[in-house]
Design goal:
CATH superfamily of the largest domain: Butyryl-CoA Dehydrogenase, subunit A, domain 2
CATH class of the largest domain: Mainly Beta
CATH topology of the largest domain: Butyryl-CoA Dehydrogenase, subunit A, domain 2
Number of strands: 14
CATH architecture of the largest domain: Beta Barrel
Radius of gyration: 25 Å
Structural class: alpha+beta
Largest sheet: 6 strands, mixed
Distance between the termini: 76 Å
Helix content: 40-55%
Oligomer: single chain
Number of helices: 17
Strand content: 5-15%
Number of domains: 2
C-alpha cells in the first residue's frame, strides 16, 4: 500500500488500544478533543508526503516502485544524513518547531538497532539484522506511525535494574522465554505521541551488566497488543482552548505518555536484542547519536521562532534600538546560528560503521551541540521574557479581547508602539508565554538525554592523549610517549 492518506492514518488508530487520559479510559482516540491535537499533528506527516512540493525530499521509491517515507530508509552516506536533516528542518518549520511525530523519534531508534544488530549477529550468529530489515519493510509498506520506547521508569536511580527492591518491573524485562517468542513486563515513560502511533519500538535506555541481562531487550510491537496500557501525560490545554491563547499547545500536544507492559508476548521475528547485555548500552548510545542530530536540527528551527519572537516583541514594545536590548538580540542570534552550525558539522564529520555500509552522526559534535542548546536555553528564556515584559504573565484571555464590552478597553490600553495593531502584540505575547513556559524549559533540558548524559558521552569520547601531547610539546616534556600528530612537527622556534 505504501503511502497512506491522512484519513487512512486516522482510521488506523481505531484498533481497540488501551489509552487513558485525565483519569478516563478513551473509547476512541480519534474523537477525543485533546488527543485529536496529537493525531492532527502526527497526520501532518501524511499530508506532506502526498504533497508534490515535498515528495522528492520526504519520500523515495522502493525496490517495488512504491513511494515510501525517506525517514524509514537506511542511512548509508553523508548525503543521506544531510537529507534526513533537511527532512527534520521541514517538519519543524511546518509544525512551529515540533516535528511531526509519525516517525520523528522512532526513526532514530530504527537506525540504532540497524547498526547494532549487525554487531550482535557478528559476535553471536543471531539473526537480529534480518529481523530489523523485515520490520523496516513492514513499516514502509504500511506507512506506519511509530513511537520510540526508550526511557524506563527506573525506580531507585542508585540501583541497577536487577537490584531494584520494590519490584523488578521498573525496567522492561524478559519474564519468560518461549519457542516462538518472549513475554515482557515493565514500563517506559516520556514516550512521545505513542497514543497516536501504530507501533512502538522498544530498546534499553542505558548500559547493562550481566546480572541485568533480562532487561537487555529490544523489539517492535503494535500499540494495541494485549497487555499494553498507555497513560497519557497531562495536557497543557483543556477542551475549548483557542489558538489565540494557545498557538503552540493548541497545535501540538506531544503526549509524553507512560506505556505499561503487562506480560506482553513478543514473537521471535519482532525481537532485535534478547539478553546480549553487553550490547544494551550500544543500542542506547547509537540511538542518542542519531537523536541528538534530530534534536539539534529541530531546535535550530525552534530557535528561529524563538529569536523572531524576541525581535518582534522588542519592535512592538518600541525598545529595539536600546543598547541592552540589542545586546540580548545579538546573543540570541549567535545562539541560534551556533546550534545550526554544530548540527551541520555533526553530519559533515559523520562516522562510517566498520565493516558496514551504514553511517551515523559524529557523536562528539552531536553531544556538544545538544548540550549547548539545552544548557543555554534558560538564558535564552530569560532574555525573551525580559524583552517581552511582565504582560507575558498577566495578559487577559482572548475571550476578553473578543468581548464587545471589553475589546475597545484592551485595544486602547494594551497597545504598544504606534502603527502596531494591539492584536498583533497580544498574539505575540501569547506565543512568548508558551515558548518560555516551564514545560518548554524541562523538555529542552531532558528531551533527547539530560545534560549529564551529554557530559558523560563527551568525557568518554574525549581525546585526552591529543590534548596532553600538545601541552607536553609546548612545555618541552619528553616522557617517551609518542603521538602521531605532534611527533613529526618541525622544531619550534626554529634554530636560525
Amino acid at each position: 500500500m505504501a503511502l497512506k492518506t491522512p484519513q487512512q492514518y486516522i482510521e488506523s488508530l481505531k484498533d481497540g488500544r488501551v489509552v487513558y487520559i485525565d483519569g478516563k479510559r478513551v473509547d476512541d482516540v480519534t474523537t477525543h478533543p485533546i488527543l485529536k491535537i496529537t493525531n492532527n499533528w502526527v497526520a501532518t506527516d501524511y499530508v506532506m508526503n502526498l504533497d508534490p512540493r515535498y515528495q522528492d525530499l520526504l519520500t523515495d521509491l522502493d525496490a517495488d516502485g512504491e513511494r515510501v517515507s525517506f525517514a524509514l530508509q537506511r542511512q548509508r552516506t553523508k548525503e543521506d544524513l544531510m537529507r534526513l536533516r533537511e527532512v527534520v528542518k521541514l517538519w519543524a518549520r511546518t509544525c512551529f518547531g515540533k516535528p511531526s511525530g509519525a516517525k520523528f523519534v522512532a526513526k532514530d531508534g530504527l537506525n540504532a538497532v540497524t547498526v547494532v544488530s549487525q554487531r550482535i549477529d557478528k559476535k553471536y550468529g543471531t539473526n537480529y539484522a534480518k529481523n530489523v530489515e523485515a520490520y523496516r519493510k513492514h513499516l514502509q509498506k504500511n506507512d506506519l506511525a511509530f513511537a520510540m520506547g526508550l526511557t524506563d521508569v527506573k525506580g531507585d536511580r542508585s540501583l541497577k535494574p536487577s537490584q531494584q527492591v520494590q519490584h523488578k518491573d521498573f525496567y522492561v524485562r524478559i519474564v519468560e522465554e518461549r519457542k516462538d517468542g518472549i513475554i515482557v513486563s515493565g514500563a517506559k515513560t516520556h514516550i512521545s505521541q505513542v497514543a497516536a502511533c501504530n507501533e512502538v519500538l522498544v530498546a534499553p535506555c542505558h548500559a547493562m551488566t550481566k546480572d541485568d541481562k533480562d532487561y537487555a531487550v529490544a523489539f517492535g510491537i503494535p500499540v494495541n497488543t494485549k497487555g499494553i496500557t498507555i497513560i497519557s501525560a497531562a495536557p497543557e490545554v483543556n477542551e475549548g482552548y483557542s489558538l489565540f491563547d494557545h498557538p503552540i499547545t493548541g497545535s501540538v500536544y506531544i503526549n509524553d505518555a507512560m506505556i505499561v507492559f503487562d506480560n506482553v508476548f513478543i514473537p521471535n521475528e519482532r525481537i532485535f536484542l534478547k539478553g546480549e547485555w553487553e550490547f544494551a548500552g550500544q543500542v542506547a548510545y547509537m540511538f542518542a547519536d542519531f537523536h541528538r542530530l534530530s534534536a539539534e536540527t529541530y531546535k535550530a528551527m525552534e530557535l528561529e521562532l524563538f529569536t523572531g519572537a524576541a525581535v518582534l516583541m522588542a519592535e512592538y514594545n518600541g525598545i529595539e534600538k536600546k543598547p541592552h536590548i540589542r545586546e540580548k538580540l545579538t546573543w540570541l542570534v549567535m545562539y541560534t546560528e551556533m546550534i545550526e552550525t554544530l548540527g551541520l558539522a555533526a553530519v559533515e564529520h559523520c562516522i562510517q560503521e566498520e565493516g558496514s555500509d551504514l553511517v551515523y552522526p559524529n557523536p562528539m559534535i552531536a553531544n556538544i551541540c545538544k548540550f549547548q542548546f539545552a544548557d543555554n536555553w534558560h538564558q535564552a528564556t530569560k532574555y525573551l521574557q525580559d524583552i517581552s515584559g511582565g504582560i507575558v504573565a498577566t495578559c487577559p484571555s482572548s475571550k476578553d479581547f473578543d468581548n464587545p464590552e471589553t475589546h475597545d478597553i484592551l485595544d486602547k490600553y494594551l497597545a504598544g508602539k504606534a502603527g502596531i495593531p494591539t492584536e498583533h502584540r497580544l498574539r505575540m505575547i501569547k506565543l512568548v508565554r508558551e515558548m518560555s513556559s516551564s514545560y518548554e524549559d524541562v523538555l529542552t533540558i531532558h528531551a533527547e538525554g539530560s545534560l549529564e548524559a551529554q557530559k558523560l558521552s563527551i568525557l568518554i569520547m574525549a581525546d585526552f592523549d591529543r590534548y596532553k601531547a600538545a601541552a607536553k610539546r609546548a612545555a618541552r616534556i619528553d616522557d617517551g610517549k609518542k603521538h602521531e600528530l605532534f611527533d613529526n612537527l618541525p622544531e619550534f622556534p626554529p634554530k636560525l
